[in-house]
Every structure is written in C-alpha cells, then in structure tokens.
Design goal:
With about 160 residues, the protein is of the alpha+beta class. The chain has helices spanning about 5-10, 10-25, 65-70, 100-115; strands spanning about 30-35, 40-45, 50, 55, 75-80, 90-100, 130-140, 145-150, 160. It has one domain (about 5-135): Electron Transport, Fmn-binding Protein, Chain A (Pnp Oxidase, Chain A). The chain is built from 4 helices and 9 strands. Strands 1, 2, 3, 4, 5, 6, 7, 8 and 9 form a 9-stranded antiparallel beta sheet that branches. A hairpin with a 5-residue loop joins β1 and β2 (about 40-45). α1 packs across α2. The N and C termini lie far apart (about 35 Å). This is Pyridoxamine 5'-phosphate oxidase family protein.
C-alpha cells in the first residue's frame, strides 16, 4: 500500500491536482464507502494531509466510519462545482487502517488547532484512519482536450486524451 508521501513522489500530477482542489474547496471532499448491504454511500469529508500521511479523521460513530470499520475500501473525490472541470478534479482509491497512536493523535490535534482553531486537543481518537492509496486518477482540460491522468502502484502516471 502507498502512503501520501510515496504517492506524491510516484504520482506528482495527480497529487498536485488533488491538493489544489482540496484547498480550493476548503478541504472538502466526498468520501465513498460501502454500506452493509453492499450499496454505495457518499459522505462529505475533510481529509487532512499530516506528517506524510492522508488522514480520514472525523466524528466517531458516524455511518461512514461504521462502513469503513466493516469494509476499509474507499474512494475520495475532490469536491467539484465546475461542470467544465476547468481547475481539474481528482479521485483517490484505497483502504483505511485504524492507527491507535496517542502521540500522533495529539500532534494531529495540535496542528489542526493551529491551522483552523478547531480544538480536539486532549481527546482520544477512535477510530483514526490513515489512508493507503491503491490507485488514483485526475482530470484536467488542457487546450480544450480532456486529459485523464491514471496511476497505479509500481507504475508511472499515464495520460489518456479525450477529444470532444
């Protein structure tokens, strides 16, 4: 599996598009999980990049976290409001793992407070999901041509061009 830092090294174009769209949308993404009955669920999520990892942290006991506890697979899509995707968009596919490391949790809470003013310092995080990225794709429009950038572990990014 691939950490955020490993992903940015092997998929620089997709990671830059993800970071740009993630920041532009106020860190908002859409998280796809699998419900108990096998159907998909889409939920808003504010993933964070911290200490070389991508973290899917949030309010415990939510249905999206119950989904991830049962089936760790996910898709994370940058929030898109422009139907022409002029600024691009990106999707990350992967699996989460619950990282129970109190020192990490407190560093995360300190950084979150410093960046946003949202205070979770001193709280226990359970679950605290780290994302392992298993594949990714992004879309950009370059000179009127849609470029779909695709990445899989162990392979370089490649581009499929779609002319309208």
């Amino acid at each position: 599996m691939t950490s955020w830092n490993e992903f940015t090294e092997s998929a620089p174009r997709i990671s830059k598009i993800f970071e740009r769209r993630h920041a532009a949308a106020g860190n908002l993404c859409m998280l796809a999980t699998v419900r108990a009955d096998g159907s998909p669920r889409i939920s808003p999520m504010e993933p964070r990049i911290f200490e070389g990892g991508l973290w899917v942290a949030g309010m415990p006991d939510t249905t999206k976290f119950k989904d991830l506890a049962r089936d760790p697979r996910f898709c994370l899509h940058t929030a898109t409001v422009d139907t022409q995707v002029g600024d691009g968009d990106a999707k990350l596919f992967g699996q989460v793992r619950d990282i129970q490391d109190e020192a990490l949790h407190q560093r995360f809470a300190e950084a979150l407070f410093a960046e946003t003013g949202f205070d979770l310092r001193g709280r226990k995080f359970s679950p605290f999901y780290g994302a392992d990225i298993t594949s990714a794709s992004a879309v950009e429009i370059i000179d009127g041509v849609m470029e779909v950038v695709i990445w899989k572990p162990g392979k370089p990014e490649y581009v499929v061009r779609k002319v309208a």
